[in-house]
Each structure stands twice: as structure tokens, then as C-alpha cells.
Specification:
Shape: elongated
Strand content: under 5%
Distance between the termini: 26 Å
Number of helices: 7
Largest sheet: none
Number of strands: 0
Low-confidence stretches: none
Order of helices and strands: HHHHHHH
Length: 231
């Protein structure tokens, strides 16, 4: 009976970690794609290292490494790898909860930091020559996709309003500009997805707790049966 439970638990952990590993590879590949094709340094010069591409890249690396440890530990019935997998999951859960608490506590300061950085990015874009597309293309992409213009409104651009700010043909005598600023649009987008983000964090923590329980249960089964490598 004990050996049957051990085998079932082992197969479950292997399957779950293999699935997580494949998801991690997909996230890593998407992060590399985002990093190559979408550079956000012109939007937020000081916060460029915290853009979505870098976050996806780091998340993909962490997921693949941790899930590989869990898969290998369960497959080889290695107590050392299982214990490492357990500790890493516990550490990741603490980091996620800490970041979530910091975002809630320092929400105002973070919003001000993002606003200042967007303003600096826009001033940097305005300082570039009109025919320079390296900086403007990033603002053009965001303004077109989010249907916004400038940080607060079109007046942020002064006399260098890009074509992406136009809601209609910019060649007309009186072009119609997008009314909303990108900061307001980004804030509304964050508020709309706040519940989804919170639920995702809770689900992720539950999955991590289940992973820790499975790893520790398998670790104890292996210890009692005298199988696996010794620590």
C-alpha cells in the first residue's frame, strides 16, 4: 500500500513539474521575443529594467529551474533535490507575498515614480530629431494600442505631436487627437485587472503550497522506506 502511494505521488509530481517546466519554457521564449522586438527604455528610462520583457524572462528562468528540480527529485527519488525544491518554493512564496504587500503599502509612491519616469521618457522623445524613429516608435506603439496620447494629454508633446496621437487623418487642417493620456489609461487598465491579478497570486500560492506538501510527503515516504539518496 505504501509503495503504491509512493509511486502515485511520484508520478503526480513528475507530471505536474513537467507541465510547469513546459510553461516556463514558453514564458521564457515569449520574454526573449518581447525583449528583442519591444524595447521600453524610451518610455521609462529609469524603470526600463522592470519592463514586462525582463519580468517574463526572469519568471521563465525561475519556473524552468524550480520545476526541473522537482521533476528530477521525484523521478530519481532524491531527498536532497526534493528538499531543495521545497525550500525554493517556500522562498518564492515569501517573495511573492512580500512584493504584494509592498505594492499595496507603497501604491502612491510607486504611482508617482511611474509618472515621473513616463514624463522623463516623453521629454527624451521630444528632444530627438523628428526623423529619429528609435524612441518615437515605442511611444507610437503604446499610444496606438492603448488609444492614448502623451502622459496626461496631447499638450505634453507641445509642437512635436506624433502621428500616433491622431484619432483620424493627421493631414487634415484640424486633426482629432486622442483625448486620454497614457497614464490615465494605464491606471484604468491596472484597476480593471487588479482582481484578476489578485486571484492569480492566490492561485499561484495555493499551487506552491500543494507542491511543498507533495515534496515533503514524498521526502518522508522515501526516508521511511529507506529509498533514495541519503542527505
Amino acid at each position: 500500500m505504501a509503495q503504491g502511494c509512493l509511486k502515485c505521488l511520484k508520478l503526480t509530481m513528475c507530471a505536474a513539474n513537467f507541465l510547469c517546466f513546459m510553461c516556463g519554457v514558453a514564458v521564457l521564449a515569449f520574454g526573449v521575443y518581447m525583449m528583442v522586438n519591444f524595447r521600453m527604455a524610451a518610455l521609462t528610462p529609469n524603470l526600463a529594467s522592470f519592463n514586462s520583457a525582463n519580468i517574463l524572462l526572469i519568471s521563465g528562468i525561475v519556473i524552468t529551474c524550480v520545476s526541473f528540480l522537482g521533476f528530477l527529485g521525484a523521478l530519481k527519488e532524491n531527498r536532497c533535490l526534493l528538499l531543495t525544491f521545497f525550500l525554493l518554493l517556500f522562498f518564492l512564496m515569501l517573495v511573492e507575498l512580500t512584493v504584494a504587500c509592498l505594492l499595496l503599502v507603497y501604491e502612491g509612491e510607486i504611482a508617482k515614480l511611474v509618472t515621473d519616469d513616463l514624463t522623463k521618457g516623453l521629454e527624451k522623445a521630444k528632444a530627438k530629431p523628428v526623423n529619429s524613429t528609435n524612441v518615437m516608435s515605442e511611444w507610437d506603439l503604446v499610444q496606438t494600442k492603448l488609444d492614448c496620447c502623451g502622459v496626461n494629454n496631447v499638450t505634453d508633446w507641445g509642437d512635436k505631436v506624433p502621428k500616433s496621437c491622431c484619432a483620424n487623418d493627421c493631414e487634415t487642417p484640424r486633426p482629432l487627437y486622442r483625448p486620454k493620456g497614457c497614464l490615465v489609461t494605464l491606471r484604468a487598465l491596472f484597476e480593471e485587472n487588479f482582481l484578476t491579478t489578485g486571484i492569480s497570486v492566490i492561485v499561484l500560492c495555493v499551487v506552491e503550497v500543494l507542491g511543498m506538501c507533495f515534496a515533503m510527503t514524498l521526502f518522508c515516504h522515501i526516508s521511511r522506506s529507506g529509498l533514495g539518496y541519503k542527505l
